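User: Can you help me understand a structure? I only have the sequence.
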Amino acid sequence: MTALSTLGKGAVTITFSGIFIYTAELFHTPVRHLAVGTSSMMARVSSMAAPFVGQPLVRVAVKHCLMAI
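Assistant: Let's start by predicting it. Here is the structure, written out as tokens:
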């Protein structure tokens, strides 16, 4: 479980870093600060919500896998 947590945290960090690079290149200069700020905010909100959304999904997936066996 610790390895999965570390892997997930690393994936979130890489994605969060990629958002800044991609967003800065995607938008024109007058809109860039708003786009980077909005992207950063949504990345932080979704990283806070991930444990609450992911935990019930894992429980359902495990139940379905056990039923399939």
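Now, to help you interpret it: DSSP finds two helices and no strands in the chain. Residues 2-68 form one domain. Let me know which part you'd like to focus on.
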